[in-house]
Design brief:
- It is built from nine helices and nine strands.
- It is an alpha+beta fold and 294 residues long.
- It has two domains: 216 residues, Jelly Rolls, CATH 2.60.120; 36 residues, no CATH class.
- The strands form two sheets. A six-stranded antiparallel beta sheet has the order 1-7-4-9-3-2, with helices on one face.
- Helix 1 crosses helix 5.
Length: 294
């Protein structure tokens, strides 16, 4: 007998979350239909063509990158809000935040002849304690096949968490070979880097990143998606790009949830409204009780 859909989903979430926390990465095969990915690749063909190559040894002078993907194709939402992926990300990050946020959406094209990228950890964009918490989870979605020859992402198993403090990673890198429709999920503390493209084809992919909701995101979401754009998003997506407070009161607009900007707000003065965690609400109520009775 087949397991109910909810039981199957829970089993998949458990399996990928466990693998992510134990190895530092996991691959979800067949996460999206090939047609969705192919159409998305078609939507991004013009930006890929028009975007200049990068500058610097990290971004790469033979690699193209651009963001703001949610305004470039309607199919990006399927990646950003993929239910299994989001559930795994929330499982990993929720112990350290009230809510997660979208950290970036970035398209990447690694052209023939591109050298291997400097191995790095994406959590190093923030200067917080290392080895104690996880700050972000990235998801690599291939638009073209990722192979050893065309520079698929290389990852070092077990290099995450407290091992991010080790002077050298133990063991050899694993090449994240996968077909379009798959999703490579890896921790921000996992050592990784693009491989060298030794083929005659351009390797294209998308990185969707999620981080703790109280961090400054890699991509400035409010500039990428100002209110007039975010107003077209559904509530879940708008919240992911920053139109929702992180309790207590972080990211507010005039003391209220910034989602007010997506409605009929006309610039009138607003009264501040508490947005506290349950423990803070309870403490504030207990403190205020005797004074209210006086």
């Amino acid at each position: 007998m087949n397991a109910p859909h909810s039981d199957l989903a829970a089993t998949q979430i458990d399996r990928h979350a466990l693998q992510l926390l134990s190895k530092g990465f996991t691959i979800v095969r067949g996460a999206l239909p090939l047609r969705t990915i192919a159409t998305l690749d078609e939507d991004l063909a013009e930006p890929f063509e028009q975007t200049p190559f990068g500058t610097g040894n990290f971004y790469g002078t033979t690699t193209k990158r651009f963001g703001r993907l949610l305004i470039r194709s309607e199919h990006v939402r399927a990646l950003v809000c993929h239910r299994l992926v989001l559930s795994v990300v929330e499982r990993v990050l929720s112990p350290w935040c009230d809510r997660i946020q979208l950290n970036t959406t970035q398209a990447i094209a690694v052209h023939p002849g591109a050298p291997a990228q400097f191995p790095h950890r994406d959590q190093d964009m923030w200067r917080g304690p290392v080895g104690e918490i996880e700050y972000l989870v990235n998801v690599m979605w291939p638009l073209t096949a990722f192979t050893r020859e065309n520079g698929a992402t290389c990852l070092w198993p077990g290099s995450h968490g407290a091992h991010a403090l080790d002077p050298e990673p133990g063991g050899n890198a694993v090449v994240g070979e996968m077909a379009p429709g798959a999703a490579l999920i890896f921790l921000g503390s996992t050592l990784h880097g693009a491989g060298a493209n030794m083929s005659a084809m351009t390797r294209r992919g998308i990185v969707i990143g999620y981080s703790l909701g109280w961090l400054k995101p890699y991509e400035n979401q409010w500039l990428a998606y100002p209110p007039e754009i975010a107003r077209t998003f559904d509530p879940e997506l708008a919240a992911l790009v920053g139109y929702c407070q992180h309790r207590p009161n972080l990211g507010n607009f005039e003391g209220q949830c910034p989602s007010v900007l997506l409605g009929d707000y006309d610039g009138r003065p607003l009264g501040a409204i508490d947005a506290l965690r349950p423990d803070q609400m309870a403490a504030a109520s207990t403190f205020a009780g005797p004074q209210a009775a006086a």
